[in-house]
Amino acid sequence: MMNIDEYGIAAESWDSSVQFRIKLRVRLVDNKENIEVWKKTIKEEQPVSRGVFGLGGVAADVITAMTLSELSEEEMIEGFSQLADFVSDRIAERIQRDFIKAHSD
């Protein structure tokens, strides 16, 4: 089971980089025994790159709040869809890594 507690984007000013933030709780439950096998709270904060929104530049280039505000609706939809895919992959990798680490002793 996964519960997303918080998510969103933030920037300190119009000229600063946009950060994507998410906080979620993951629980693995043994359905036969009805017991919790493993749980983890995950917090991620990731700078949003220009490439996610198809703006070119180096992959490490971040997008500013001003640039984000100038995008069309279609560009935002595409960019946030790509961002969601990227973040979900990172979360899945982290869950897998943390679960293996917790059960490797």
Mind sketching the topology for me?
Layout: E1 2-10, E2 19-30, E3 35-47, H1 65-69, H2 73-102
Description:
The protein is α+β, with helices and mostly antiparallel strands and 105 residues long. The protein has one domain (2-102). It has helices at 65-69, 73-102; strands at 2-10, 19-30, 35-47. A 3-stranded antiparallel β-sheet has the order 1-2-3, covered by helices on one side. It is elongated and about 55 Å long.
- Biggest beta-sheet profile: 3 strands, antiparallel
Indicate the low-confidence ranges by residue numbers: none
Number of strands: 3
Total of helices: 2
The termini sit apart by 24 Å
Name the strands of the widest sheet in spatial order.
Answer: 1-2-3
Q: Which key phrases capture this entry?
A:
single chain, 105 residues, elongated, alpha+beta, three-stranded antiparallel sheet
Task: Describe the structure concisely.
The chain is of the alpha+beta class. It contains two helices and three strands; from the N terminus they run βββαα.
